[in-house]
Amino acid sequence: MHERTYDVAVIGGGAAGMAAAVEVRRQGLSCAIVERENQLGGILMQCIHNGFGVQEFKKELSGPEFAEEFMDMVADAGTDVFLSTTVDSIEESEQGKELYCYSRKNGVVKLNAQAVILAMGCRERNRGNIRTPGTRPAGVFTAGLAQRLVNVEGYIPGKNVVIVGSGDIGLIMARRMTWVGAKVHGVVEIQPYPAGLTRNIVQCLNDFEIPLYLSHVVSRIEGKNRVEKVTVSPLVNGIPDEDQSFEIPCDTLLLSVGLVPENELSENAGVEISPITSGAVVDSTMMTSVPGIFSCGNVLHVHDLADYAAEEARRTGAYAVAWLQNKKPARQLRIKAGANVRYVSPGMINPELPDKLYLRTLIVKNNAQLVMKLNNNIVKERKLSHVQPSEMVSVKLTKKDVEDWHAESDSVLEVSVQ
Amino acid sequence: MQSNTNGAGERTKVDIAIIGAGVSGACIARQLSAYETEVALIEKEADVSFGVSKANSGIVHGGFHHGPKYLKTRLEIRGNLMYDRLQRELDFPFSRCGILVVALNDEEMKYIDHLYTQGLENGAIGIEMCSRERMFELEPKLESDCVGGLHAPGGGVIEPYRFVFSVVESAVKNGVQLLREFEVVKAERSGEKHIVHAADGRVVEARYVVNAAGLFADKVSGIFGAEEFQITPRKGEYYLLDRKTKACPNRVLFPVPTKVSKGMLVIPTVEGTVLIGPTAEEIEDKTDLSTNADKLGQILDQARKMVPSVSQTDVIAAFSGLRPALLPEGDFYIDISEKTPNFIQVAGIQSPGLTAAPAIGEYVKDLLKKAGCRLTEKADYDPFVTKLPRIRDYSPFEADELLKKDAAYGNLICRCEKISEAEIVAAIRAGHTTLDGIKYFTRAQMGRCQGGFCSYKIIKLIMRETGMEYDQITKNGRDSVVLTGRL
Known about the structure:
The complex is a heterodimer of chains A (418) and B (487). Chain A is 22% helix and 36% strand. Chain A has 418 residues and is an alpha/beta fold. Chain A folds into three domains: 2-123 and 260-328, FAD/NAD(P)-binding domain; 126-257, FAD/NAD(P)-binding domain; 334-417, Sandwich (Immunoglobulin-like), CATH 2.60.40. In chain A, the strands form seven sheets. In chain A, strands 1, 2, 5, 6, 7, 8 and 21 form a seven-stranded mixed beta sheet that branches. Chain A is globular and about 65 Å long. The termini of chain A are far apart. By secondary structure, chain B is α+β, with helices and mostly antiparallel strands. The interface between A and B is large, with 55 and 57 residues.
């Protein structure tokens, strides 16, 4: 068995993994990225639409262009990259961590690392997860798989398409399928509001006159061999209404019904997982419940933009370096998701070194107010012009924000949206 | 398993033709492959086990559910005992994890007493009546209302399709000809022979015909002018739970049965996932494999009566299977036809058909002898199939050695179930060239992502290995094409 040793091993070579690795190298520690596909970039490589890089590079890029910027940085930083290599398990060792990696080229390789950064991203929720009844014919794809088939492999998955879920991938695939000559008959969204970004509703649906059915579900799939039609039902009091249901003949159903952080490897390594985000529970330094294992990007919680994932990952890389240099926070306060907030990530804050927090709301509201309370005293407020569950809110806390907090070690910071 | 698809009009001449490559037909074919006789195994679908045998509970039953008067009970008891040897010979996943029947009140406990007595009469080995305390010792995840139950340590779990694949592989290795996509539409007698016609023009000539056509055994019987009977499809819906579920029991859990069925179960599958179901609904359409929204609630409620930690969020797939029931008795009908010469009926093979199948193979062999078929043992019969390594069974240190012999084991294609390129290529080379065929052979696409990450990689491997074009790749044969165009 081959063996290699690094200060830090990064699992996953998408936006988050590359950004984390670049930061580790910038601070002078040795680092390797392990990526299961045959190139870096992750899901960015199938996202050929624009809209990436505005935060990170101050210019609008496609997914592959955004990835290439980071690939260049990875190469310049002298990061070792193991491609077409899958991490099978993470074990504790006397020196730190051992990663057992499988590949065609190198067989089984053992990577020794002091610290590990998890950046494996997400998988798509599928038909089984949303329990759509009916037959099980060919022609049902997750939207991301369809995107991969069209944009990378060059195949068209169908001609007459219905899309379930108005998440960004679903919206972008509505436009993409139209461009490759398919007819998209509608996008069906269970919620009364779209799940994707407003700009995608306009650019991917409205511009192509694709109907968006809000508060509707696909209640049945029919077809013996290939999909033949689907039944679409409006929700009345939360239940599909059979009387108002209608059928759409189609040969393809694309599902854009959410992403789930892919944490099986993390769980096997003993990392505690949050039932809310399905990502790791992390402290203010993005460290998981296992000392020396950090988590960032979409495997931690689902981000709206690759730019945000990269930004979070860069901080995580820095935190991993600090941990290796024995710079550990003296104390951390727990953060609690208060009224109308689904989660706050990370779930802890270091009052000596305040950092950025990401949160998702449970509500849709204009002119909302973000309220932070410490021991029931309001310590920070901010206006939010519009909130909705699909749009992540970021809050940057500065030293000035926290200087008169007078936090005790058992103080809890409650974050709510009113 | 080689593809033996002949061109239209080609004639295959054999001694015995078996119609239907489900678990019964497969076991009969393998049994006969030990003798000096020419056998053709005929299947209308694109792959074997694509009918009744692909979707059922996957249970090797414990021999206590039915009384001793039934043929199915005798074959269940015998079949159960044959599984250990079969596993050694055929290398399919099988675990004799045991079965518990859960009583939730004193009324149900009386029925447990009946099942116990019945099991003893049948000759089921090792069954015991359990107190509440004994039940919780055997299964700590049980609902606290459990008052006692029955333990059948001889029961177990297999993957039904994987078992059929192994059985057919062994049969083909010993000379059985497999004809797929051969839908029998017509048959006639010519002298001492049956002439069997397929929809696509192919013909099989056989001295003896075995009707193991599952849901369509009534139709096939009619085509051959044999007995009239009716097979009723009884639909069972199932939900598959992620292997991460906290609701995985140690043993198969049965409720106390009803008159119609054995009830809805919680099954720890042999591969580590959990299956809950089935429903039992008599329907008309023998091709109706749809699932229905109202059934999920019923199944979850029933499962939670035994294991409260069953959660809807663990569901990764839903599917339906059809049991071919011969009503009203519900027994197997395995006999020499009294109307059509040299024609053996193997019909109504519903539960416990999977358990009984190996014994059905023996039983039909004896019926053929009785019907005058001469069967002498083959000198070179080899009961063993080649064992294929599965990377998921290897530790990293063992894998290191395996990868030195075949690097393709290092390319993990299906991340959820940990299936390598080498295993998928082995499936394709064994003749499984549909996405479902590869799924049933290897488990790739069967995990929590349900093929979201790996199906396009598998499509590329099929194209590379077979030279098929993208538009020839199907989910499970016929018109189930996956890709409709190219950029």
